[in-house]
Amino acid sequence: MPNAPEPPPLPTDLTAAHAMNLAERAARLASEIAVEQLKLEIARLRRERFGTSSERSARIYTLIETAKLNRVDPQAWLADVLARLPDHPARGLDDLLPWNWTQPHPQPIAA
Predict the structure, then answer these.
(1) DSSP code, position 105
(2) How many CA atoms lie within 13 A of 12 on its CB side?
(3) Cα dihedral 51→87→62→60 (10° resolution)
(4) Is the model's pLDDT at 96 over the cut of 70?
(5) pLDDT for the residue 39
(6) Are 96 and 70 in contact (CB under 8 A)?
(7) What is the pLDDT at residue 64?
(8) Is the distance from CB of 103 to CB of 69 less than 8 angstroms?
(9) pTM of the predicted structure, to 2 decimals
């Protein structure tokens, strides 16, 4: 890989105002680079934690289709499960699966 070209030398008659302007531009550029690097890191962590958008879509589609296969209204099931999940005991999570879930007012749907 060839070495990067050397920047041109600074003029010798550089005034203090010009030097401050250059320093401000350099600081702004450095902060813009830092922001871009932070955005890339956030995107990487989001992909790592939640997967890509196609993976998330596949997970949601799987939940919906599983509910339909068990003759459960997917919207009612997901709304109920998401509402109950924070206070639901971990040992009873099987009760929230579509094939075990019961709705207060059952409304089966056509498959």
Answers:
(1) S
(2) 0
(3) -50
(4) yes
(5) 86
(6) no
(7) 92
(8) no
(9) 0.49
Amino acid at site 103 = Q
CA 72 to chain centroid, in Å, comes to 29
Helix (H, G, I), strand (E, B) or coil at 36: helix
Neighbours of 72 (CB within 10 A): 23
Which sign does the torsion angle of CA 106, 65, 84, 90 carry?
A: positive
**Three-state DSSP class for 3?**
coil
Residue 70 tokens read as 């068990």
Closest-CA residue to 84 (of 66, 68, 102): 102
Alpha helices by DSSP H, listed for 4-72, are: 16-50, 53-69
Q: Of the segments 50-59, 64-73, 85-94, which one has the largest average pLDDT value? A: 64-73
